[in-house]
Structures are given as structure tokens and as C-alpha cells.
Amino acid sequence: MTEQEFNDLFRSYLSETSRFIARRTKAEDVEDLAADLFALAWQKRDSIPKGLELPWLYKSARYLISNHNRKQQGRTSILATLQEPQSAPSAESIALADIELADAWKGLSTKEKEILSLWAFEGLEPKQLAVALEKSENACAIALSRAKSKLTQLLNSENN
Amino acid sequence: MVMNENEELRNRIAGSVSPEHVELPEYLVAQAAKAKPKRVFGFNQLRLGLGSLAFGSLALVGAFVLPSALAPQPLFTMGMAAQGGQAMSSLESAPAADAKVGMIWPGYVQYNYISDGLSSDTGRGHVYQAELVGTAEELIASLMKEFKIDGEIKRDEWSTDAAPSFTVQTKSADGIETYLNVYWAGTGTWYFSSWDPSKWQCAPASTDSKDEGSSEATCEQPKPEPEKIPSKEEMANYAAKLFAKLGTDIKASDFMVNRDEWGGSAYADLTLNGQSLPVSVSVGWDAWGNLANASGHSFKLVDRGEFKTVSAIDAVSRIKEGRWYGSAPSSFYNNTAITSRVAVDPVVGSETAVEPLPGQGDAPEVDPTPKVVDLKINKSTAAMLGVWDAAGGFWLVPGHLLYNEQGWFDSIISLEEGVIELPKYEEVAPMIEPGANTKNG
Helix, strand, or coil here: A160? Predict the structure, then answer.
């Protein structure tokens, strides 16, 4: 991939990337994280699966955000660095418009929040989720289905 | 969940949030393809006027050092434990290596480090940067002259412009093989060895069919001649003279000397203002009194300033982070019984260490929750620790050796946060190979 091709392709993902990162971290950190993300994409440009560049950006952004968040938290154990990256939006960040949903969202695990947000906010289907979350397509489909069911149950219990 | 409900839920989630819009500049992508400048300390900017420390005398020549408050950037970016590669072999790096292993294989034990009677006093400490002395060619020439080697200087396969590495290998008429290597980065490490294979001749392996199954070569153990091995005093004196000729002054009395019927060795840590450094020199003899090996360095120390340091209590909280380790002087290891953390911990049973190979039946149930073990840190000692920067340079920084009740210690950098840039988590987290998952695509 030439520099020109890279610019043409990845520039088209700027807005999605911006939104993805902005949902998961502070606004003032978005540009720095995005700059790191695109620098990484340039380094790895030859190994990014064609047609799945955006899910690949999400996958890598998860790691960057996760590492960034750990750094912000200060002292971190070695074990924490080995944990799976987690970059799900917090309940607080979705509490603005839908209080019921925000309450139900709090009842989800971080992994459930993450897969649901990738599905709903980023519009990913299991094939793309598989790239973003580094799991099989089947595992993502099952996890997504369970997360949706759980959220629906939580919403129903809120209403009752 | 039916399709309509599915889409309804999706839309509800998607419509519930309106994150603060962040307009990313177009050039963000374009600049990705340009080399991102590394935040490595601009040495040339500060070289003028800095005090330099010649290793020959280890005395400060100048005194002017830029105040740390004026330094807008970290002094340097630390490399990972493996940074420095070949040169690391001659420097003590066990704790750093331990930390790295811990990152790769966490095991099932999580230590909870507890300060027990440590000091809360903060302090100040100097940071020194190793600067190579002379040129690689000059060093090789002086070593070849000293060890009477006459051969072709070859650049090693793994040599790079930033860290050149050279080797001279020879075989004399009487069969003695010599090897000389110079690694021209960091501390300018060199290593020499001389080997007489005739002393260890083996009969060729038997091809007799009757001996099938026992085809190992038979080797006759050579007879040592300990009377030819220099005395301890002679070894120390020789070592002091050798390294003085090569630019490193160490008193004969500072060498640790070992001698038995199979040879001897003299070994010393370099020192700075009376403090041992994690940089050592050595020379060894074989069982017939011949010089068998020697190793040393060619560098001087440049004072990069005095900086605030954290207390021993605060340093304890850095142990877990894994990124604050430096290399302690070897003399500290000699005084401490270092044992594996896993081996000394009673909670780790063999059942957690064994992972069945594919096809060996069901994997045993292993509790993925780490066992938490409280470990008291009950003693601390100040020490200069060695660290490698991301560009392959070597630095000395102040640190605490934190001794625990199990008899080993962790060597933790005591500089306040921000003086140096630590290795990034990304370098140890899975994201170092984000492209490895392309099979999913």
C-alpha cells in the first residue's frame, strides 16, 4: 500500500474513528490516540485484512484506549497489563438521553457493554466483530445474542 | 429476539448517546506515514557544558548541569529489558528479566507487597549517561595488540549502524583458537577468549556395529596443572594492570578472585563515588595457567543532572508495575540468595504448572484467579541501577533495592515520575502484534 493509497483509504475512516474513541475516552485525548492509531495502521498496513480496515482500526483502538486508561489510573499491576483490553462506554456516557437504558446498561458486564456498543454504535456485524474483538465469528454471534437478551431483560425489569 | 425488536434495541442504544464531537484534522492520517519523532533526549543540545566523567578516574571533570526544572522532556525513554541485547549479557539484569517473564507468564500468584518499617524520606540522586570513549576501531586495535591477535576484523551479521558489532577470530599454528568481539553501543562492551582444543581431544565416535547404540565420542579428561595457575594475588595484580592499560582504573584489592585446580578468575564491579555500578569487568585463566577470557567496557559517564527521588515506601508500589526495574550491581546478588519466586512460594502446586499437550486428555480444572500472597518488604538500600534506553544507550539512575522477607530483592528506580519515560505498556501488551489476527478476516 503506497502512502497515497493509505491516505485515501484511512482518511475516510476519520469520523468513525473519532466517534469510536470519543465514546470511550476524554475529548482532549481523542486526537493523540487517533494519531497513535493511524501511525500503528501505517506500520501494519500490509497485514491489515482488506475490506476489514475499519474493524481492524477498532480492534487496535481498543488496545490503545485500554493502555491509555491504565496509564491514567496510575499504578497498575503487571496482571492488569495482561488482561483483555476493555474500552466499553461507561453507563455515565450514555445516561444523557435514555435514563432507563442507562440504568439497564449498568447491569451489563464490561464485555457485554463492549460487544453491544460495537454492534449498536459502530454498526458491526459478527464478521466485523470477530476482527475487532479477536474472537471467532461464531463466538461473537453468541456473545452478542446473549448480551442483547440480557439487556432486554434488564430493560423489561426496569419497566415492571 | 425478532428482527424488529433487534433493530429497535440497536437504534435505541445508538440514539441514546451523542458523544462530544471531536473533529479530527485531515493531516492526522497523512502524518502517520511520516516517521513519528521519538522522544529521545537530544544529547547534542546539552553536551556542551555538561560535566563529563572519565571512567579512568571516575572523577567529575566539569560541574555545570542543566537544572532539571528546565528539561521539558524526559531525559530518555527506557527500552524494554531485552534492549541492549548482547551487551546485557555482561551486565546484571535478573530483576528486569524477572519482570518481563512475569509479564509473559503471570503464573497464578499475585504478590501483595507490603512496606514494613521502610523510610518515607524522599531524596535526590544523579543520573549518568554512558558515552563511548574513542572509536570501535581504536578499541579493537588496542585489544588485538594486548591479546596478541592478528586476524581479519569482521562486522557481525547482526551489526547495525546504531549498534555496530565486530568480531576477530583466529586459529594459531599450534591450534589455539581466539575470539574477540566488540559491541560498540551502550558501554562499548568487549569480550575476549582463548581456547586450546587440543587439551580436550576426543576419540571419534565408534562406528563398530557391535557398539550400536553407544555412538558417543569418548573424551579423556585432561589433567589440570594447577601449579601453573597464577596465585590469587597475581591474578588481581594482572587484572588491575590489564584494565588500567585499557583505560579503566580499578585497584587490585577491589577484584574478587577465585581459584581452584581448574583455573581462576578476577572480577570487579566498576564504582562511582564509592558506589558499585551494575557494570563489571573480568579476566579468567584455564587449568594450565593460560589467559582464557576477559571482558570489559570502553565508556565514560556524563552527569545529566540531579533529580528528586521517591521514598522507599513509594518505591514499593512500583514493584507491581513492572516498568520501574533497573539492573543492580552484581555485588548485591553475591550477597543475596536469589531464588525463583515461584519456587519459594508454597502456594504454587505442580497442578497449576502443568499444561497438558494436545491429545493428552482433558485439561485439569485450573482456577484462573491468582492466589494473593502478602510479602513484606522490610529493608531497603540505595543503589545506582543500570537501564537501557530505547535507542540502545546505557544510563545509571538512582534506585532502591527492596529486600523482602523471602530473601530476595527487587531493584526499583527511585526517580520521580516524569524524569524518564517508561517503556510503554503496548510493548508488553498483545497489541504489539495487532496484525497477527488477520486470519479472522
Answer: coil
In this prediction, residue B393 carries a pLDDT of 86
Q: Please indicate whether residue B102 or residue B56 has the higher confidence score (pLDDT).
A: B102
pLDDT at position A42 over 50: yes
Interchain CB distance below 8 Å, A94 and B106: no
Distances (CA, A) of B434 to A85, B295, B425: 12, 40, 14
The reply to whether A4 touches chain B by the CB within 8 Å rule is no
Non-local (6+) Cβ contacts of A139 within 8 A are A130
Chain A neighbors of B14, CB-CB under 8 A? 120-121, 123
Contacts of B36 in chain A (CB under 8 A): 39
| Complex ipTM value | 0.71
Report residue B254: phi and psi, to 5°.
-85, -5
How do B371-388 and B109-115 pair as beta strands? parallel
- The distance of B438 to chain A (nearest Cα, Å) reads 6
Cα(B186)–Cα(B130) distance, rounded to whole angstroms?
6
Angle at A130 between CA A125 and CA A136, to 5 degrees: 120
B434 versus B181: the higher-pLDDT residue is B181
- The DSSP H or E segment spanning A41 is helix A27-43
Query: Residue B284 region, left (φ>0) first, then alpha (ψ -120 to 50), else beta?
Result: beta
pLDDT score recorded for residue B36: 41
Strands B109-115 and B409-413: unpaired
Q: Report d(CA B65, CA B57) in Å as an integer.
A: 20
* Class of residue B406 by CB neighbours under 10 A (exposed 0-12, middle 13-18, buried 19+): middle
Q: What DSSP letter does each residue of B126-180 carry, written as one string? A: EEEEEEE-S-HHHHHHHHHHHTT-----EE-TT--SSS-EEEEEEE-TT--EEEE
Which pTM value belongs to this model? 0.53
Q: What's residue B334's pLDDT?
A: 64
- Helix A27-43 / helix A3-11 crossing angle, nearest 10 deg: 140
